[in-house]
TrEMBL record:
Keywords, ordered alphabetically: Elongation factor, Protein biosynthesis
GO molecular function, one term: translation elongation factor activity
Pfam families in the record: EpmC
Organism listed in the record: Limnobaculum eriocheiris
InterPro entries tied to this protein: EpmC
Record keyword Protein biosynthesis present: yes
Listed name of the protein: Elongation factor P hydroxylase
Amino acid sequence: MTRQHNPQDLIDLFEQTFGVDYQTKLIQGDDEPIYLPADDKTPYHQVVFAHGFYASAFHEISHWCIAGEQRRQQVDYGYWYCPDGRSADKQSEFEVVEIKPQAFDWLFCVASGYPFNVSCDNLEGDFQPDRIAFQRKVHSQVMDYLQNGIPERPARFIQALQKFYQTSPLTADDFPYPEYPTGWCH
């Protein structure tokens, strides 16, 4: 984290962009990320990101941007998370549902001038996921959003990031096609 990329800035931008319309706050957590809908004790929804990590905040905002109204009324949007240590088949399923959130992550990163790293999120698995192949799928989704339009909530957040970080409008050139390193076999 640099001074330029402070998680508190994301908390403030999220509040300014969505706080009133969606009664939702971005919260810096001490443990694993989670989404918590409003309840009797807390009158607002909470997008909790892990350990104060800037990139975690983007990823949790991405999942929030995808979740529809009914999903936003459920803890963790009503999804069951398959933890680290997935088999090849489970990893493939995981990657399918992670393409869109990670595409938003990449868009948010570029809009804020922050480096993007695709996450296969399977450090304890019994095989090595193909990060480049997965990032190419994410890249394809980014290109689709740039060509056909970014949905309203992520578009609003991108605009807030661009204004705050004084970055240029997003173009396809901002998202290089992922290449395998020279000499790497896939």
